[in-house]
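Notes from hallway chat w/ T.B., transcribed later so I don't forget. T.B. wanted the structure written out for a chain they're using in a teaching module, and asked if we could keep both sequence and structure tokens in one place. Agreed to drop them here.
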Amino acid sequence: MRTVTVVGASLAGLYAARALRAEGFDGRLVIVGAEPHRPYDRPPLSKTFLTRRAPDAVELAELRLSDREEEDGLAAEWHLGTRATALDTAGRTVALDDGRTTRHLRTDGLVIATGAAPRTLPGPPLAGVHVLRTYDDACALRAALHDGTPRVVVIGGGFIGAEAASSCAALGLPVTVVEAAPLPLVPQLGPDLARICAELHADHGVRLLCGTGVKGLRDDGTGRVRAVELADGRLLDADLVIVGIGVRPATGWLTGSGLRLDDGVVCDAGGVTSVPQVVAAGDVARCAGVRTEHWTSATEQPGTAVRNLLAGTTVARHTAPPYFWSDQYGTRIQLAGRRGPQDTVRIVEGDPGDRGFLAVYEREGRITAALAVDRPRPFMRLRRRLVADAAAPCGPPAAPAAAPGEGAWPYCSAASGPRCAAPTPGASPRRPAPPTSRPPCWRPY
């Protein structure tokens, strides 16, 4: 393999490039990014970035994920401000468009790390309506927030919407959050803890309207938004609207490539796709039936995917449970694992009424996830245990949609140690045989 191309120059793309060099790849490394900026950290964009005033050049430097010395060490060709527009898997070429010219890049291996793009509302674009995904999005939104005292409506009560609302409240702006579901974050947190987290809005003077969608936006006759019309007929005056209704995986350029696409690039738990020498990682990757849109996953998945790319087959799988954090109204919310609809929840430390607690989700005596509000230390201890338990073959995993190269049992990494069963005669040398007994590695808290 002489040339490897990483399409996507954000977090997952940078970590893929680092992993390639760390794994000993010394060939030509090409990094393609649609944005004109070197890789930068996105989480601050919905938080302190919106509330402070500073020269943009200074702030962008503070957000950078790598410095010049590291970038020189990667010895990569950077093609920034350049979109990948098509993939020819038979010819092993990626079509690139920098806004001036279109060309085709020949590559032996490909890492897809194009992330996701914000969902938008139907209808013509209006001034005063913003999404928040990129550095340029955040700059435009911040300029609007600091221009007078705009009445803000946030559409979507998820993490991005809640963080944006928190920043607006910190600026002293009148804010209303509209959420179509009965409560924000019920799928992730369950109704009881979602209700507690939703109360943070009211605690800080932000109005939260749940159980109603948005019918449309009203303009003032000059192409600028003036109101949000709700599905129940109410009309909310608005000078500025922030749309935070989720994202779509950036897979449009892969249409017709032969890759399996279904809410992302379909791949196995190691990021291996249906096409040889093509792997995926980060927000765009639907690994073993699950697509995870979290910062931590975007840093962990690329190493596994790159290892498999260089090996030419799935020799490693990413087993760590998802983890994310959110800072809202001066409060840190952390969640690790995946809560199931039948899980029970138990408070093990603190008091939800005091807005500080640690809770665990349990199923059949096993901890499946943990949620903390301003309890970082005990949470991280519990998270480490969840990670260790997930790496052990404690029983058959949930049955995801069939994916290429996906076996019936999780790959045991070196970190799993002696708990991994030795291969039996006739078993694949790259995939351990299922253990005959399953250790009780999920323990009650």
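Follow-up for T.B.: The radius of gyration is 23 Å. Might be a good example for the class.
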